[in-house]
């Protein structure tokens, strides 16, 4: 399908007379493209999507596109790069302060200008990617070379289209040589080579058509220059790229390349936690030194410093650096915030146990004492690394974790806090202190520029302004990051205005400096920011979006803006995350609405203030959201009088609640109702208008019956649940969660789930449920369903209800792992081809048809995982034989499962291959697994783990893993074939536990090579090389 779509697009793009008609279509695709990419990256929103939302970004990208349409070239190399002052063509002048180009295209005009390069260029422009399209024929003199060097240096990604006569052009070879230099000298430059109608071997070795080109170059140029060109061809020709063998492939390859480019650029814009600070290496090394990793016993290091100064980032960098040395590890974030929640200590303990034991710990913990006992009994026996992030006086180490001295020898603890005195109280555990200080001027400028310009230094005409702004940040990384993000792609006049505002803010008031970013937001985005800061941290983005859409907001656009300005983050589970300084600033803004009278503010998030508001029957039309706590006065029910002054209430959350009396439609605008525990003595309230209610987290049946617009229903924590309610007959429900704690109640096993009115349902979570039966139809009738979790479901007739699951056209996520589903290898006869994530204990019957699948986890499957054999590429009628080539699978995990061949086939070992798209392969605890498919085609694989597979005697194709960064093989003493390790030039970690010494032959590149594999980091050293 991708091939056909790409080919059609190629034809369309080459039809010049109707190109204007298709521009409208391309514009729409450009807006849709980031959302398509979200699914690929398992991230709901990435900052790069903001490029498509920025008027300046669209305007200038369109200028480039228009210039291309008019002249046939994006930017003539004889013209200066965008942003230069020496050109006459204003249509491609980009005066905004950022790296002008993102992609540099190098190609030989006669070979590809009007074919492949033109198609690829239009794909890139369609995605609003700023592309410099070079053409060797358009160069008019040596004076253009400095501008070409500048364009190459500015571009993050270089795409040389190496065609048959590419090497005949000195310009192309000069560019290629410059690309190779940049790749070696500067981190972040990526080269994606295209081999167009030419053999990559000819490129690498300068044979074939490249040989004749160099015979002429040897006559015309000095030997040093020619040798430099040869070295560049050899280096870049060996990189992973695309081989275009026919014109029919041009469209498909162009689309694939543009997707990869977009993916790289998205990652560059979304800085990881360990990369967002510059110059932290010294701090990381200092903390590692204080941990004394080579010394026995347990040790503890405390990081202290101002909020927003980078304590968490340094702790995470240390965690990433040393975590592989430990048997178990856990990073507990935002402890101060978590402890303020109900049962916060228990929540921390559950997360610690889940992380450390590598399980989803769902068993109830009834008290902190019980949690501590479980940690001491089950976690402390391992050598653990535990990070306790952002603790305050409310955190008591021994109450939550127990005595640190009881943990296994070699365990380490890292604690971050703003309070040095608090960390000093841990001296009984010999806690060593490390102060995180403000950044110096040079490093501050570098960090600021990463967010303001996406480079390490400012453009010359912005240097003075940048230095002045950096001075106002007082060396605080969070302020530098937020202010830099705010000024990204803004005009100089905006910079001057913001500098004036920053200089007026008190030097020590971080909130005042951060607030400048908030003030620059539009009204709608401000409201969403304040909602997250007060109520929605940790909430899944999809759920909160229902609330905002009903408020006539546009959450996707607003969230994009907040992400781009570093005011918000999205976690791995699509939940909202926010730096505590940013959260505190948001809450302070709400408090300033009325400092003395909380009931006059828009949001009352403090549960004590919310409780006082209700008890004293206070309130105002300004109040939109309230959170209340348990109070004995509520035992008789929350009365109408307590809500009479809250006509605009949209959000209400209470720890314990029941309602009674005549409410006389007092809260007609209520959209969100969350009652952690609901008690009802049979006296239901009257005239309780729930017609606008969208989300309910309670088991109050009478509320469900009145909620005609209900979108989300979460009953996962309803401990008093006796029977399942009747769902709205309107069919409005889109998310239903019956998971978690309800499974522990015996009465639940007699309940029936009626899905007859759930035809609009998008998410159904039955994880850990124990149901008598499912009624009202089959799962296959829920045509809108996108996510279905049946993990450990116990239900008498569940197999009959999922027989037609393959008919679901929109299902993206399916989880069916559990004891109930593994018997006799039974499975669903056909899975929907739309699946992107599959976790199962089923037999996967039609794996070769799941071409959209990106994540596959198979656990406890007695039948095994069938691998379609490789077939003849010319067999167009057999998708199965091409599965390893066309699949989009990124991650494969096998646990207690074996590979098997498809019934009725007898392939050779070389015909059994996994998808080339794989980046992660984890095979663990598979005692009956006897063989693993060859890995030679997995050139995208970055992580490989093979553990506790005692019958596997060889791993073939290691030499093909050219992108591998992490290799883990443990609990083995008889692995005999592990050849090709010396080819793994990108390998950073190589972990071998309890393994016999590997022979020298196992570590050699090949039989006639003397190069021995030397990984950058050896976590488990090989003590002996036999035969050396």
From TrEMBL:
Name of the protein described by the UniProt record: TIR domain-containing protein
Originating organism: Linum tenue
Annotated stretches, region: Disordered: 57-89
Annotated Polar residues bias: 59-71
PROSITE patterns: TIR
Keyword Repeat: yes
GO molecular function: ADP binding
SUPFAM superfamilies reported in the protein's UniProt record: L domain-like, P-loop containing nucleoside triphosphate hydrolases, Toll/Interleukin receptor TIR domain
Domain (TIR): residue spans on this chain: 99-261
UniProt record, GO biological process: defense response; signal transduction
A family per Pfam: TIR
């Amino acid at each position: 399908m991708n091939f056909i779509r790409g080919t059609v697009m190629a034809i369309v793009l080459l039809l010049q007379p109707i190109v204007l008609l298709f521009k409208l279509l391309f514009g729409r695709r450009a807006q849709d493209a980031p959302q398509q990419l979200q699914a690929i990256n398992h991230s709901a929103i990435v900052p790069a999507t903001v490029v498509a939302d920025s008027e300046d970004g669209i305007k200038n990208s369109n200028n480039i596109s228009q210039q291309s349409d008019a002249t046939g070239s994006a930017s003539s190399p004889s013209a200066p790069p965008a942003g230069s002052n020496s050109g006459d063509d204003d249509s491609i002048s980009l005066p905004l302060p950022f790296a002008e180009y993102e992609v540099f295209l190098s190609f030989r005009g006669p070979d590809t200008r009007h074919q492949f390069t033109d198609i690829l260029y239009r794909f890139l422009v369609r995605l609003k990617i700023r592309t410099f399209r070079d053409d060797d024929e358009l160069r008019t003199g040596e004076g253009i070379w400095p501008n070409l060097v500048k364009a190459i240096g500015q571009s993050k990604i270089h795409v040389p289209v190496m065609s048959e006569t590419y090497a005949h052009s000195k310009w192309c070879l000069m560019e290629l040589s410059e690309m190779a230099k940049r790749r070696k000298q500067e981190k972040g430059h990526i080269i994606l080579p295209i081999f167009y109608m030419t053999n990559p071997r000819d490129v690498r070795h300068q044979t074939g058509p490249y040989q004749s080109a160099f015979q002429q170059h040897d006559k015309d140029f000095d030997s040093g220059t020619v040798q430099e060109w040869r070295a560049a061809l050899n280096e870049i020709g060996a990189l992973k790229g695309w081989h275009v063998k026919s014109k029919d492939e041009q469209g498909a390859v162009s689309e694939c390349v543009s997707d990869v480019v977009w993916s790289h650029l998205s990652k560059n814009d979304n800085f990881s936690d360990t990369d967002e600070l510059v110059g932290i290496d010294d701090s990381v090394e200092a903390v590692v030194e204080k941990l004394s990793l080579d010394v026995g016993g347990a040790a503890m290091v405390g990081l202290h410093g101002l909020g927003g100064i980078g304590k968490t980032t340094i702790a995470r960098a240390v965690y990433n650096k040393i975590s592989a040395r430990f048997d178990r590890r856990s990073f507990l974030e935002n402890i101060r915030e978590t402890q303020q929640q109900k049962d916060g200590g228990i929540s921390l303990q559950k997360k610690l146990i889940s992380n450390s034991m590598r399980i989803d710990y769902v068993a109830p913990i009834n008290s902190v004492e019980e949690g501590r006992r479980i940690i001491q009994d089950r976690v402390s026996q391992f050598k653990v690394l535990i990070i306790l992030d952002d603790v305050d006086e409310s955190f008591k180490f021994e109450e939550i974790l127990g005595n640190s001295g009881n943990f296994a020898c070699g365990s380490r603890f890292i604690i971050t806090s703003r309070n040095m005195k608090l960390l000093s109280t841990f001296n009984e555990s010999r806690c060593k202190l490390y102060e995180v200080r403000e950044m110096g001027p040079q490093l501050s400028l570098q960090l600021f520029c990463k967010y303001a310009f996406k480079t390490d230094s400012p453009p010359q005409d912005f240097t003075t302004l940048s230095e002045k702004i950096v001075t106002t940040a007082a060396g605080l990384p969070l302020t530098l990051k937020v202010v830099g993000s705010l000024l990204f792609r803004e005009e100089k006049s905006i910079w001057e205005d913001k500098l004036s505002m920053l200089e007026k803010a008190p030097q020590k008031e971080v909130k005042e400096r951060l607030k400048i970013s908030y003030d620059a937001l539009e009204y709608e985005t401000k409201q969403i920011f304040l909602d997250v800061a007060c109520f929605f941290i940790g909430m899944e983005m999809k759920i909160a979006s229902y609330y905002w859409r009903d408020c006539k907001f546009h959450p996707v656009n607003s969230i994009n803006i907040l992400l781009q300005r570093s005011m918000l983050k999205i976690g791995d589970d699509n939940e909202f995350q926010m730096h505590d300084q940013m959260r505190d600033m948001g809450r302070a803004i709400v408090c300033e609405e009325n400092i003395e009278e909380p009931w006059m503010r828009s949001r009352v998030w403090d549960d004590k203030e919310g409780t006082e508001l209700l008890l004293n029957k206070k309130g105002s039309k300004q109040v939109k959201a309230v959170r209340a706590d348990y109070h004995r006065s509520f035992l008789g029910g929350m009365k109408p009088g307590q809500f009479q002054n809250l006509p605009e209430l949209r959000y209400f959350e209470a720890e314990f609640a029941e309602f009674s009396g005549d409410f006389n439609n007092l809260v007609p605008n209520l959209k969100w109702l969350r009652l952690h525990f609901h008690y009802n003595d049979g006296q239901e309230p009257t005239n309780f208008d729930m017609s606008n209610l969208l989300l309910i987290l309670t088991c109050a049946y009478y509320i469900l019956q009145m909620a005609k617009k209900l979108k989300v229903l979460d009953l996962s924590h309803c401990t008093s649940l006796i029977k399942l309610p009747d769902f709205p007959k309107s069919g409005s429900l889109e998310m239903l969660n019956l998971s978690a704690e309800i499974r522990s109640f015996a009465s639940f096993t007699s309940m029936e789930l009626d899905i007859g009115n759930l035809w609009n349902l998008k998410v159904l979570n039955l994880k850990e449920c124990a149901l008598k039966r499912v009624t009202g139809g089959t799962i296959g009738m829920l045509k809108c369903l996108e996510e279905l979790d049946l993990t450990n479901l116990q239900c008498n007739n569940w197999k009959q209800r999922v027989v037609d699951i393959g008919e679901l056209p929109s299902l993206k996520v399916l989880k069916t792992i559990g004891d109930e589903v593994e018997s006799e290898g039974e499975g669903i006869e056909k899975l929907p081809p739309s699946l992107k994530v599959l976790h199962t204990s089923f037999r996967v019957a039609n794996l070769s048809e799941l071409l959209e699948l990106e994540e596959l986890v198979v656990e406890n499957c007695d039948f095994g995982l069938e691998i379609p054999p490789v077939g003849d590429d010319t067999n167009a009628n057999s998708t199965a034989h091409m599965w390893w080539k066309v699949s989009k699978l990124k991650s494969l995990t096998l646990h207690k499962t074996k590979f098997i061949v498809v019934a009725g086939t007898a392939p050779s070992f070389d015909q059994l291959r996994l998808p080339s798209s794989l980046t992660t392969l984890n095979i663990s605890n598979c005692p009956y697994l006897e063989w693993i498919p060859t890995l030679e085609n997995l050139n995208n694989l970055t992580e490989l783990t093979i553990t506790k597979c005692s019958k596997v005697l060889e791993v073939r194709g290691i030499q093909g893993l050219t992108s591998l960064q992490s290799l883990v093989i443990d609990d083995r003493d008889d692995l005999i074939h592990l050849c090709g390790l010396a080819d793994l030039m990108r390998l950073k970690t190589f972990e071998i536990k309890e393994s016999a010494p590997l022979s020298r032959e196992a570590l050699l590149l090949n039989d006639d090579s003397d190069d021995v594999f030397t990984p950058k980091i050896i976590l488990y050293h090989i003590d002996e090389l036999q035969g050396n």
